[in-house]
Amino acid sequence: MKSSEKPFVEIYADGACSGNPGLGGYGAILRSGDKVRELSGCDQMTTNNRMELMGVISALEALKKQCKVRVTTDSTYVMKGMTEWIGTWMRNNWRNSQKKEVLNRDLWERLLKAAEPHEIEWVWIKGHNGHIENERCDFLARAEIKRCKKSSEAPAYEKA
Prior knowledge:
CATH topology: Nucleotidyltransferase, domain 5
Number of domains: 1
CATH architecture: 2-Layer Sandwich
Helix content: 40-55%
Low-confidence stretches: none
CATH class: Alpha Beta
Structural class: alpha/beta
Mean pLDDT: 93
Number of strands: 5
Shape: globular
Largest sheet: 5 strands, mixed
Order of helices and strands: EEEHEHHEHH
């Protein structure tokens, strides 16, 4: 690879919620060549859409330099948001087609900033359909929900 060429990174991301809103988790996989990194996290009170966004955001924010990126998601919300809706939202001062404030604006703005330096191809896949990386991201997201649930149920002295 020439030093001027951008590295190619594949990102797979998923989010999950136990209750919507409720306890949520996200998982992401970054792959570049033979290097693989997994990321995950949780939120005590969130929505499924926020966790779907956080999966992608966490992965893009982990990139240290400009890359060519393929983001694979099972979220039509994330996919259409970034490929169809966001330009109109910004032109309309973050109002949607019903003239209401766009939900999750904070995360959409964070995603835009994280995506800005990269050349991104957005790919949608059907969720829970045997896609290996998507299933792994779903597993990571659900494991985070379990981990956060246990930590929220622990007595205060155990949380320190």
